[in-house]
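hey so i finally got around to running the thing on that chain from the lab meeting. sorry it took forever, my laptop kept dying and i had to restart like 3 times. anyway pasting the input first so we r on the same page abt which one it is
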Amino acid sequence: MNIALTGPLARKAEWKQRVASACNILEFDFGKELPEHDLLVDLGFDDHPERIMAYDALTTPLLLSCVKVQLSGVLAHFGVRHKKNVFGINALASFIDRDKSEMSLPFPEEKDAITPLLETMDIHPEWVQDRVGLVTPRILFMIINEAYYTVQEGTADKAAIDTGMRLGTAYPHGPFEWVERVGIRDVYEVLDALYQDTREERYKICSLLKTEYLRSVLG
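ok and heres what got predicted. didnt touch it at all, straight out
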């Protein structure tokens, strides 16, 4: 199977490690010639949802990184109202190479269309609702946000919180270790997207987290 693959370098590397043995990976830069493919995978779609307009004419299935955006909302916003064979996946850093892949779709009846391709790649989907944040990032990043509030209030430092979470909850990583693995930019932007979507206070970003995010942007 030929996979046309685009997106950030780190995510592409993680994807290739995950599926390369079962597929022929054909990397491309968006806006340039698209290789012949059976499946198009865009691991940077979260940051460039306008790309859906360029993909509208394709008849091959699309697998798009969709955590910061709601896939059905993107289709509606850009007027792509009858696009089938389009699927979302949690492709944030460190989430790709997992036994279960968190996936969403705007048209439930299309699920069978991608099943054979997923089986070829040895990807086992965990289908969740097509919502901003999906499920795991929504929960995990809310915990990270609360951990930043704890540091900001002076209750504990980052190392102590990470240790406490690992020992007290048996989590594989503490919240700040997750920030290092995922990247503060994506943590911040997912939380911001969740707050804009829901207006729920639990997703309102801690000012310390925001400050660290802005520092990372400024370099």
